[in-house]
Design goal:
- The protein is of the alpha/beta class and about 500 residues long.
- It is built from 16 helices and 20 strands.
- The strands form 3 sheets. A 16-stranded mixed sheet has the order 1-2-3-4-5-7-8-9-10-11-13-14-15-16-17-18.
- Helix 15 packs across helix 16.
- The two termini are about 20 Å apart.
Amino acid sequence: MSRLGSTCSELNIATRPNLFRDVRWPHRRLSKVDSPKALPFLPETTWSLIHDLHFDWPEEWPDMLTNPAETDHPDIFKRLDEALPKIPNLKVFSCTIPFDPPRRTLNILFEYTAVQHLRMIDTPLTKTPLLNEPHKVEALTLVPVAEAMRMGEGPFNGKMREMQYFSRPYRQQHRGVAMWFAGEIYLKDFRHVKYLQVSLQFVWHLGSLSSEPWPELETLILTGTCGAKNIGSMIDVVYTMPKLRDLRILLAKKIGHGPDDDRMSDHHIRKPTILSSIKSLSLSNSYGTEIFLRNASSVERLSISAILKHPQIPIGMKSSELDKALKDLEISGGNKSLKKIRLMTEDELTVAFFRKLGQLCPNLEFVEIERCGYQEGEVGFEWSDYGEVFSEYRYLQELRIGIPFADCEEDCTAHSDHKECIRSDRQDFAIHLASWVPTLLYVGFEYRTRTGKYRKEDRWLDYEIIRSSKRIHLTELAPTWYEIPEVWERTLLHD
């Protein structure tokens, strides 16, 4: 779009709102040639267009000029502090720097801007922030230094694939280090937020989350790793959040803990029926899901993902675990209200499973069943078997399944490229399913591709179904992925 805007002044004016709505500063290209002292802020003519500002310390710069929280701010922060009060439409401020955020910058942000979402990502928080007016903020995100969580065997943050990312001195110093003290202060100051994403690296124990009420909280996202000692009881936490509707427990197993340690503690004071208020429930198969599924009687969206800390490889649920999860959901009655479901398994999917899923959850509109470590092979069932089963899903609009197709070798000579070989049967099968399921709007099939000399990933090939009076057409969609903590909204995948 920037190239389009440079062709003429009229196009420049037309594209500018989109170009500057979501901006990153310091700009990476400029940071390679200019020192922090010489780097200008964004042009003042663009300030009214900025909604999301990412303050991202370039990898090329040293970890610390001085300690800006203790001494005079470097020029880079002076320019930022001067500009912030003059950005009238600022809604989201993200910070990624190798030291504690300057207190002055944070207080200017809260006092003089309309910022609604504060995001601290890959940033050490070791000192008390001493914030003036954080009550305006509606959302808070705290992601610790180098928290490299992976969901399934699909794509994940590309920069975390490289050892160079983890070798930066400040990441070596702070990676995995508990930041409870500063975390507790942030959580205390932001009890009014509607959205909270926090890693357990900032939380001493879950009791601190339930020590005071969260009267406005609608979305709670927990990331990181933990064992039974610090997981405590989510029931008591949810009880302090009367407006909570979206609960995401995206936790990985803690290395070195045995099977007994990996179970979520059953000790709680409140009754688990409080979970009946949850509409969107996202869980990790690293910990017991039973207490949640057996009490989520009104859930409309359910995902159970395989999550581990990179470079470990996540392992999905076994078939027996899938069956148990569905039975637990049936006990609560949540199967009747469920409209969207995402599951990850390590076993091959069968027609019998999809039949059972459709019978237990009759109102499904979105179904995604991913096989971790997807494998090509014989389909195992007739296409008409799948068509017959999914035709019983009365409300199905989008279907993504990791069923096997005939193997496509990387050196296949029958097609122009490996992707074309993968498309061949999947396109035909997509049209076949669309002919059986008249409500179906989108369909996707899993495949596995090489992304490096020694690395493979699971991917999805998605189609939009276009129906005319005489035939069914397909439009291949751009590749997408789920970036933690998102489990329902996909973003475009840029390899």
